[in-house]
Write a structure and sequence with these properties.
Layout: H1 3-34, H2 46-50, H3 53-75, H4 78-81, H5 87-100, H6 106-123
């Protein structure tokens, strides 16, 4: 396998990992919304949030993502895969648009484009 194709596989694996992480965080945000705590969060309501299925499912996804991340770290150079964490920002922007109906200003789309270009440059070793 050539370096570029190996690096593209790394991008795919890191991308899957960060889709899982962004999904976990989106579940936590949904839980906060569903439990009515978007504007009035205090640490006294934290046990209610942590015991919700949103939090538990999100935490389960984090466990899966952590296992995948350890696998990725065992196969690739740290200086290649760690900067690819930026892929999480891309997924978060699109999840916020799709799941929460949030408005995305043009400069965030430009930022997503810059991240994509940066990840491609990383893969061109």
């Amino acid at each position: 396998m050539t370096n570029i194709s190996r690096n593209l596989v790394a991008i795919l694996q890191v991308g899957v990992c960060y889709i899982i992480i962004a999904s976990a965080q989106a579940l936590w945000k949904l839980g906060v919304i569903k439990l009515g705590g978007t504007a009035k969060f205090t640490f006294s309501v934290l046990p209610r949030y942590i015991s919700s299925w949103y939090f538990l499912l999100g935490a389960g996804l984090y466990v899966i993502a952590t296992g995948l991340w350890i696998y990725i770290l065992s196969r690739y150079e740290f200086n290649l895969v760690y900067p690819m964490n930026a892929l999480g920002y891309i997924f978060a922007v699109f999840l916020s648009l799709w799941l929460f109906g949030e408005s995305i200003p043009w400069n965030r789309y430009v930022g997503v484009g810059v991240i994509i270009i940066g990840v491609i440059i990383l893969a061109l070793k």
